[in-house]
Each structure stands twice: as C-alpha cells, then as structure tokens.
Write a structure and sequence with these properties.
two-stranded antiparallel sheet; mainly beta
C-alpha cells in the first residue's frame, strides 16, 4: 500500500464480512479516465467492484482502512496485512479463488 497516494484511482473488489465491514480481496490501480462507480462483481456470490478515487487511508498494525469516493458515494474498505503475496491465490466466500497483485 505504500505506492498508493491520495487521489489515486483504484479498482477494488470487496466482500462483506458477517460483522458488516467491507473487506478488499483485490486492489489494482486503474486509469484516471475510468468511470467511477460501485457495482456487483461476478467473482463469487456477493462481491462488488468499486472504481473509485482514494480519499483517505488509515494504517495500523493489522492493516489499513481506505476511504474510496466514487460517482454517487463513499465506501470504507478494510485491507488486511495477512501476508498476501503478488499473484497468490486468495480464497473468497462461496469457494471462489482470486489471483491478483495487491498493492
């Protein structure tokens, strides 16, 4: 997450935890000209894709919280520091897999 700065445009795939928090399972920089918004994503049952501008970031020992602003709203997303490595397969709800390069 050190490479990401405020006002960077990101594509963030998220899932909802049982406690209601939103958690990132994939984060990637996207071109600034990409339309911003939040929509369902077909990776597994329940995830969303948010194309948004990074408005804020709080970092702690257990991870980060990103504040993402898109066309019609704002979302707070938790990013875990669970040791995910670039292109590592990450399990997602519903038994799906996601191979991505975290920032």
């Amino acid at each position: 997450m050190q490479k990401v700065t405020i006002r960077t445009t990101l594509g963030v795939t998220t899932v909802q935890r049982g406690d209601g928090s939103t958690v990132a399972i994939a984060i990637r920089p996207i071109p600034a000209a990409t339309p911003l918004g939040l929509s369902p994503f077909d990776l597994a049952p329940g995830p969303t894709m948010t194309n948004a501008m990074l408005e804020g970031q709080a970092v702690s020992v257990s991870g980060s919280e990103l504040v993402l602003k898109y066309k019609s709203g704002t979302v707070r997303v938790q990013v875990s520091t669970n040791g995910v490595k670039p292109t590592q397969q990450v399990g997602v709800p519903g038994g799906g897999q996601c191979a991505d390069t975290p920032i």
